[in-house]
């Protein structure tokens, strides 16, 4: 069973959180509420999130300050942040949002379909990265001479393990290619396109490492690409 991605919704107004949940429920992912910047930072200490929807105007720690804390933490600095705001002070206000680390900046009232589409892109990228980390873990297990027991279930012969790894990786490569084409067709945000390109580069590195393990290549000690 594929584990659902978590989406963090941060807003001090319960009615806004309820509206966001209604819009994003169709994505069938896990929606986590936070009613303040402090509560959001606490949630980020223990859980991994695909994307954060962050209200700008909040009492106490506002969205900009919350985003700054998120980007300073190594664990959370790469999580995409979409700022939501009820007011628009012009280009300077928008620039401040991007400078704080946002990948997008949306003014309320927003189009529910557009917001759902944007969030779905980052959820899909997150899921592909999770799949890629799984493939890397399986390959690392083989490189370390641990066999295929545990991650793949029963112990497998090296040839069988490599074949299964290759098939799993091929499935992720196909999905990543389809996602990249979708981003090109939709003229998506530059941040989403860059994230997809980074994912494809990691897939290419993992494929090369896997190919190096094939019999007859003479590269049994092939190194794995970085998963950062």
Automatic annotation (TrEMBL):
Q: Which residues form a coiled coil?
A: 162-189
Gene3D superfamilies referenced in this protein's UniProt entry, alphabetically: 3.40.50.2300
One matching Pfam family, short form?
Response_reg
User: Where 4-aspartylphosphate occurs along the chain?
Assistant: 55
Q: Which GO terms describe its biological process?
A: phosphorelay signal transduction system
Q: Which InterPro entries match?
A: Bact_response_regulator, CheY-like_superfamily, Sig_transdc_resp-reg_receiver
Q: Is Coiled coil one of the keywords?
A: yes
Q: Which domain of life is it from?
A: Bacteria
The Response regulatory domain covers: 6-123
Q: Which UniProt keywords apply?
A: Coiled coil, Phosphoprotein
- Glycoprotein found in the keyword field: no
Name listed for the protein in its UniProt record: Response regulator
State the organism's lineage: Bacteria, Bacillati, Actinomycetota, Actinomycetes, Kitasatosporales
């Amino acid at each position: 069973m594929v584990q659902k991605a978590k989406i963090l919704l941060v807003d001090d107004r319960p009615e806004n959180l309820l509206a966001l949940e209604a819009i994003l429920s169709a994505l069938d992912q896990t929606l986590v509420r936070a009613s303040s910047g402090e509560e959001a930072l606490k949630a980020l200490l223990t859980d991994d999130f695909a994307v954060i929807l962050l209200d700008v105007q909040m009492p106490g720690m506002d969205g900009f300050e919350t985003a700054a804390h998120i980007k300073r933490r190594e664990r959370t600095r790469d999580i995409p942040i979409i700022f939501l705001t009820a007011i628009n002070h012009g280009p300077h206000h928008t620039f401040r949002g991007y400078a704080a680390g946002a990948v997008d900046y949306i003014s309320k009232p927003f189009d529910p379909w557009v917001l759902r589409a944007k969030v779905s892109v980052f959820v899909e990228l997150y899921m592909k990265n999770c799949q890629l980390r799984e493939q890397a873990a399986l390959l690392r297990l083989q490189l370390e001479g641990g066999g295929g027991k545990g991650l793949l279930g029963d112990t497998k012969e090296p040839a069988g393990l490599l074949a299964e790894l290759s098939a799993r990786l091929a499935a992720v490569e196909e999905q990543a290619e389809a996602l990249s084409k979708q981003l090109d067709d939709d003229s998506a945000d530059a941040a989403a396109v860059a994230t997809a390109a980074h994912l494809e580069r990691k897939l290419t590195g993992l494929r090369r490492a896997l190919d190096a393990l094939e019999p007859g290549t003479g590269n049994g000690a092939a190194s794995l690409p970085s998963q950062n």
